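Sequence of Delta-aminolevulinic acid dehydratase (Duffyella gerundensis).
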Amino acid sequence: MSEYSPVLRPRRLRKTPSLRAMFQESELSLNDLALPIFVEEGVDDYKAIEAMPGVMRIPEKRLAYEIERIAKAGIRSVMTFGISHHTDATGSDAWQENGLVARMSRICKETVPEMIVMSDTCFCEYTSHGHCGVLCGHGVDNDATLINLGKQAVVAAHAGADFIAPSAAMDGQVAAIRQALDAAGFTDTAIMSYSTKFASSFYGPFREAAGTALKGDRKTYQMNPMNRREAIRESLIDAAEGADSLMVKPAGAYLDILRDIRERSDLPLAAYQVSGEYAMIKFAAQAGAIDERNVVLESLGAIKRAGADVIFSYFALDLAENKVL
Ligand code: PBG
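Predicted 3D structure, token representation.
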């Protein structure tokens, strides 16, 4: 006997792999994961995104092929981002009946009808200035942008999108979109709101991926990363406006917020592991500093444990194709 013998011994439940599996409290599954994809119009070739090793812009003409491959790997859902060659001051291509937003949903749903298609609903990839809406004298005009978000939502729903996913961070966007969808007869089209979206520097690589023209930042519409109460309030407002699911974005640095919202709302809750989170893991692994696969599973597992039902992750396809999940 050693001099001190603990009475409480949590290690008893960790002795064997079977015990560890039996007493594991949260589980990751492919059912929880959704894959964000970048689709570029008017080009022939895939384009590597340097800041996101392993992620490519998909040429629109290869989207049908890719969506089949994604479905075959076992992924249930994609979030579509377009790289537009038709930008203007308002981002009007986004609400054209045959614009890129509409075509992405149409191609995905016609190719794989059971794929859950979420249409990222914003303007930053479609505006010449890269902001998420219409500019006015003092920044982005909230209410003018709401009208355009409604138009974009209807066009995406008409093209078959299962979810409208507003990420423009405008006040009232969920209510405006719900109203526009219902008025057009799309009462069954759901809203995946980016309800708590921080003005985060973790979005850095996305700006290259999506080719946004932004100079400056989005701090007048996206949230201050230092604010906890406001983060909860933003999601509760979207719940009250009729969102079908809430979201926290980014994920890894905001697990406390994820837990806070989980405890305050019974709606499904998503988390978005963003481009910078992906890049940090990829580059650290490439440098030999960490084991990529294990860190990916640990980071996604932590997001799940914190309270996410759905996780958007650029790692989803790799995990699915290699049968890790
Ligand atoms: C813009 C949008 C962004 C992301 C998703 N939608 C960028 C931003 O808000 O600046 C970021 C995704 C990522 O970094 O992976 N509507």
